[in-house]
Description:
Layout: H1 60-76, H2 81-94, H3 99-132
Helix pairs in contact: 1-2, 1-3, 2-3
Amino acid sequence: MSGYGGRPPGWEDPYGGYGGYGGTPGWDDPGAYGPQGPPYGQQGYPYGPPGVPHARPSNGSTIAALVCNCVVAVLCCNIVAIPGIITGALALGRVNTDPASARRLTIWSWSLFAASILIGIILAVVYFAIIATSDPGYTSSGGV
C-alpha cells in the first residue's frame, strides 16, 4: 500500500462498497452526516487511516522514577522515598493496562522524589549550620 489512498493488495472490503468522503472503501459513510456532508475539518479519515497501529505506552519515565527513589532511599535513608518507590512500582505494573493511572502514579513518584531531595538538602544545611555554630571548646571527656 502506498500512501493513504487505495486498497491494500489482497484486501477485500467486508462491508462492501466504495462510498465515502475519503475514498476509502467502507470506512466513511456518506449518510452518517446528513445531506450537507461532514462538518468543516472532518473530511477524509475521521479516525485515521485504516491499519495504522497505535503507539505503545512508554515506561521509561516510570523506571527512571523508580530507580531514583530507590537510590535516594538507600543513600539518604529518607522516609519520603519509600512512598515514591511504591507509586513507581504501581505505575510500572499499570503501564499496559491503565496508562492514565500509570501516568498519574509516575507524576506522584517524581514529586515524592523531588520532596525527598529537598528534605535531604534542608537536613544537610541544618546539620552544617549546627556544626558551624557549635562551641569549639566543648569536649565530651568530662575532664577539666
